[in-house]
Design goal:
alpha/beta, eight-stranded parallel β-sheet, single chain, globular, five-stranded mixed β-sheet
Length: 590
């Protein structure tokens, strides 16, 4: 009846008819209207309730909302509006008691690997999150996705988020009781800066090759990171900042090798973390969040971690999800705050991998509830150009909204909580697709990878390999055609995707969303055909021409769909991949 499912609900005999119709009103407008006074609804102060805790009573006297503060009222109104939309102007007598199991329920969107949504699109996202009772949003930043006033020359020739944009989004979030947390990586994942001459010397080198990691021994490195934060953090009211620090693959190489061989990479990591924590704490009054992967083997150093920081324990695959338990128990025993961080799993797949995603989200949330996690942060990454459109993330976001609020009965080894998945799909069908049953077909499309002959870490073969040249040998062991006959598998992928796609095309729903779904699905088809070429399969000129035409069309449509919702900057990353694969197809013609 209400999504996310509430903690306690009692149906009673009788019905109440509203004096004022509210069915078509927006959530924020409904909330403000209730605060101003409403003939049907009264507010009862409940001082012992938690911040987001609330009660709803519908009886002959009308509707009574119990809460200790405005946040609790807003959560109550969120549930009440769902009841009204489903029941109309006449509500059953009912009593609800509800509160979240996890105090922080966040979503993180990568805006650094290509796709940078316009402010209007981010506001739509915020509204969607608000309806699912999220209370945190992070926009992940690495390179040129924000106009840093310390380095204006690097974004002067294209549009991206500005200080005014952040302040506008901050106010929009605040109205909806969502904490907009700044997120700027500051150790690894800085390769976008190292391409500029001014910053090349800051990079840890691995022989003649750049790594993704800044050299923590250079004074200029810390000065550079400080300037990034000086530009970014004053625009945010949040008490937190996510400083990243994940996958710093350069530690232990080049200029850092001697120190790390003697003292350990974890010591160097902790020194950098401590400096950044002191910097953002003293100068900007914020507490740090950071990804956990660089400290897994350093339990002895946990006492050095700032006690008011938040560790972000991430894991997106089935095995990683299970390993979360061990890590989170260690964090709990050390008295450290942590979030669990599952993924929508759309990156490097184009469509997501929904069976992995549902397991990942459920397992992470249950671990956090069982072992004292502070919150859950659903990550949405954009590796290799962020070719997947946002439409594939809606069901995972809804499902994580459910688990963050109410995990239900603990997984018992048999129950897969299919009702949570189905209710997530129903919610998305109503809120996004106008009541049309699209979500179940997206789930099916997202499982195309099960027909591929091999598994790829946090992606699919079609999604991962498309960005690589057709003669790339990195994954040659996947393609032993003589022994496996793997072209059979990719014939199945193409056939399967076409079948699901035909069912989607029959449905009548928003044309923009429909076009985005079709385009991403056709990317899978093109990549599955290219996988046959990678295995040595010989296509006729006619077949090559067919794929060349498809490539041209996908590149054109990708650009047209992209710029409707996003800043133009970044579209060239994936568009160039399509064009490069097309040129390789042209070269194959006899």
């Amino acid at each position: 009846m209400i999504f996310p499912r509430v903690q306690k609900i009692e149906k009673r005999e009788g019905r109440y008819r509203l004096k004022t119709s509210c069915k078509e009103i927006s959530l924020l407008a409904f909330f403000n209207k209730i605060k101003e006074g409403n003939d049907d609804i009264k507010i009862e102060k409940k001082p012992l309730f938690g911040t987001e805790e609330y009660s709803i009573t519908v009886d002959a006297g009308g509707i009574t909302i119990g809460a200790s503060c405005e946040v609790g009222i807003y959560r109550a109104v969120t549930s009440l509006l769902q009841l009204i939309k489903k029941s109309g102007d006449t509500l059953d007598f009912i009593y609800i008691e509800d509160k979240p199991e996890l105090s922080r329920r966040g979503y993180m969107l990568d805006i650094s690997r290509g796709r940078m949504p316009k402010v209007s699109e981010i506001k739509k996202l915020i509204d969607y999150l608000s309806g699912l009772k999220y209370n945190e949003l992070q926009l992940y930043m690495e390179g040129e996705c924000f106009k840093y006033n310390a380095f204006p020359e690097y974004t002067e020739n294209f549009d991206c988020l500005t200080e005014d944009d952040i302040k506008e989004l901050e106010a929009y979030c605040e109205e909806r009781f969502i904490d907009l947390v700044p997120n700027q990586n500051s150790l690894g994942h800085l390769e976008n800066w190292f391409k500029f001459d001014e910053f090349k010397h800051l990079c840890v080198m691995d022989g003649e090759n750049q790594t993704n990691t800044i050299n923590p021994f250079l004074p200029e490195s810390f000065e550079f990171i400080s300037k990034l934060y000086d530009s970014l953090l004053p625009n945010f009211k949040s008490e937190y900042v996510n400083i990243g620090l994940d996958e710093a693959y350069g530690l232990g190489k080049g200029e850092t090798k001697e120190f790390c061989d003697k003292n350990g990479k974890d010591i160097l990591f902790m020194q950098w973390l401590s400096r950044l924590n002191e910097e953002v704490g003293k100068k900007h009054g914020k507490k740090v969040m950071f990804w956990s992967d660089m400290i897994y083997k350093s339990e002895k150093l946990y006492e050095m971690i700032p006690k008011d920081s938040v560790i972000l324990e991430w894991g997106y695959e089935l095995i990683q999800s299970q390993l979360m338990t061990e890590h989170c128990i260690m964090f709990k025993n050390a008295g450290l705050n942590y979030y669990v961080c599952p993924s929508v799993n759309t990156h490097l797949s184009y469509t997501g991998r929904m069976d992995v995603t549902t397991f990942n989200i459920r397992t992470a949330a249950e671990i956090a509830v069982k072992h004292g996690g502070k919150g859950i942060l659903l990550t949405d990454w954009g590796n290799a150009g962020h070719a997947q459109f946002a439409v594939w993330s809606y069901v995972p976001i809804a499902l994580c909204g459910q688990y963050g609020w109410n995990t239900g009965a603990e997984q018992d080894g048999e129950t897969f909580k299919a009702d949570f998945i189905r209710n997530s799909e129903k919610y998305v069908d109503e809120e996004i697709f106008g009541g049309v049953p699209v979500s179940r077909l997206l789930y099916r499309m997202g499982n195309y990878y099960l027909l591929e002959p091999e598994r790829v870490h946090v992606g699919t073969m079609c999604g991962e390999l498309f960005r690589l040249p057709l003669n790339e040998s990195r994954y040659a062991y996947f393609y032993d055609i003589k022994e496996c006959g793997d072209e059979f598998y990719f014939n199945n992928v193409t056939e399967y995707v076409n079948k699901v796609l035909s069912d989607i095309k029959k449905l009548d729903f928003d044309e923009q969303l429909k076009s985005e779904i079709i385009l991403n699905s056709e990317m899978v088809i093109l990549s599955s055909e290219l996988c046959k070429i990678r295995m040595g399969y010989k296509f006729s000129n006619e077949k090559l021409d067919e794929l060349i035409v498809l490539s041209d069309r996908l590149a054109k449509e990708f650009y047209e769909l992209w710029i409707r919702r996003n800043f133009e900057k970044g579209v060239e990353i994936f568009k160039s991949q399509i064009e490069t694969r097309k040129n390789e197809l042209v070269a194959l013609k006899k």
